[in-house]
Amino acid sequence: MNAIKILCFLITVSELSVISMAAEVPLKRNSHQTADNQQGGAVVFFAARQGMLKDLLFNPVIFNQVLVNQGSGYDNNTGVFTVPLDGIYQFVFAAQLCRGDHNNLWAFMVNGVEKMICHAQVTGGDTTLNTCYFIEEMKKGVQIWITQFQGSCAWSSATSKTITFSGVLLVSRGTSMLGGKYGSCPLPNLSYRQQSSSAEKTISFSCVIITFQMILFLLN
User: Fold this and answer.
1) What number of other Cβ atoms are within 10 A of residue 123's Cβ?
2) What is the per-residue pLDDT across 120-129, written as a single tens digit (0 to 9) for each?
3) SS3 letters for the chain?
4) What is the rounded CA–CA span in Å between residue 205 and residue 201?
5) Cα separation of 102 and 211, whole Å?
6) Burial of 104 (0-12, 13-18, 19+ CB in 10 A)
7) 127-183, pLDDT tens digit by residue?
8) What is the dihedral of CA 131, 136, 141, 147, to 10 degrees?
9) d(CA 142, CA 110)
10) In whole angstroms, how far apart are CA 100 and each of 50, 55, 152, 153?
11) Phi, psi torsion values for 181, nearest 5 degrees
């Protein structure tokens, strides 16, 4: 084997090494797929109030013990949650009713308007945990809080956490925060796999051709 054949052999080996390394590098996903994954963000808060809410008007009720506040939408100084992202939200208000005869009324307030009223009543020595749910599509900057009407009574302690206000962003820009599109099951990204598979086949075929040509050259 002369020097020229040796040189050609080394060049071919180098080409095959580069091609092999290229096959191991994953293809970059489409830019719109990356943007879709980065759109929106998790928004969730959970706050509790310590002490008793008895008979008086509280507008808003201030939940001063913040346990979760991802997205920084809830303000424990005012009791108001300000929507940080457009989307569909679910809010939950829960209150442990006081014993005795009380006409318990609370409301979800959205920008100062009563959107939903919660009513619960027990008599005598009975008590129960009243829970209300509210779901609505909201724009960024909308404010929501809880109002207690006069004559209502609820109680809580630092450990019981039986007066709470919470919310979560369910859907943002058409994408469910719980997975999938508006609650549908998310499908695997087949296009990325097909692109990767096609590229790998092309590279493998190129390696076979180069190897075959090198063998013929060395046999001459």
Assistant:
1) 9
2) 877 777 778 8
3) CCHHHHHHHHHHHHHHHHHHHHHHCCCCCCHHHHHHHHCCCCCEEEEECCCCEECCCECCCCCCEEEEEECCCEECCCCEEECCCCEEEEEEEEEEECCCCCCEEEEEEECCEEEEEEEECCCCCCCCEEEEEEEEEECCCCEEEEEECCCCEEECCCCCCCEEEEEEEEEECCEECCCCCCCCCCCCCHHHHHHHHHHHHHHHHHHHHHHHHHHHHHHC
4) 6
5) 89
6) buried
7) 788 999 999 999 999 999 999 999 999 988 778 889 999 999 999 976 777 665 444
8) -30
9) 7
10) 20, 12, 11, 9
11) -100, 115
CA-CA distance, 10 to 20, in Å (whole number)? 15
pTM for this model (two decimals): 0.62
Listed in sequence order, the residues at least 6 apart from 37 whose beta carbon sits closer than 8 Å to its beta carbon are: none
pLDDT in tens, 78-94: 999 999 999 999 999 99
Which residues fall within 8 angstroms of residue 171, CB to CB, at 6 or more apart? Answer: 87, 88, 177, 182
Angle among Cα 82, 88, 93 to the nearest 5 degrees reads 65
Residue 205 is encoded by which pair of tokens?
A: 């075929």
Q: Six-digit token pair at 113?
A: 């308007």
Query: What distance in Å separates the CA atoms of residue 93 and residue 69, rounded to the nearest whole number?
Result: 16
